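Supplementary material to the annual report.
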Amino acid sequence: MKTKKGFTLRPLGNEYILIAEGVETVNFNQMISLNESAAMLWENVDGKNFDTDTLINLLVENYGISHEQAAKDIQPLIQSWKKAGIIED
Amino acid sequence: MEKVLMPNEVMLGEISRLIEEGHEVLMIPKGISMLPFIRGEKDHVRLCKPGKLQVGNIVLAYIDGRYVLHRIYALKGDRITLMGVKGVVTEIITPEGRSHKPGKAWLWRHTIGLRKYLLKIYRKTNKLLNHNN
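Predicted assembly:
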């Protein structure tokens, strides 16, 4: 997998948002928001090739959770990123 | 789609920064201060970097520590107020997708005494129409 080019991660309160650079109109009604852990993952894989294991390992390393728990948490995240169109195969 | 609720100051602060960087921003404002022209939590507004401001413009401004969407009523000698202007509304889009450019509301600006009665009529009519729909 790879992140799509042209997104910038910006903090917004307790969350983070992805702003599409070069797009003239930023639609705040359809904003892609990421929580702290999702933002950490995004920062680490942005612009690189990665797979499910990369994300699982990042969660394990950064949050000290079990591999099983991380694997469980990562699936819905990948699905939501795919649905939002911010990563590609 | 998940709805994320943000404190006004945080969201409008970020919107101001984006406008400053040259983006246009689409958002749904809250509140009733711009009725009947902009209906809070219904209409979308397009905001962009303010150029030469005119009386009648609807602007996003940072005044006394908070963000407000208001119409400019006077310009003469009011430099401090204008310094707080972060963006100007260039388009209003209804939930049905109808779009129009905001007018200067000349008549509205000159009906201050009558306004509360006009708004009362507006709200009553709206309630009736919504009830019938």
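DSSP finds three helices and six strands in chain A.
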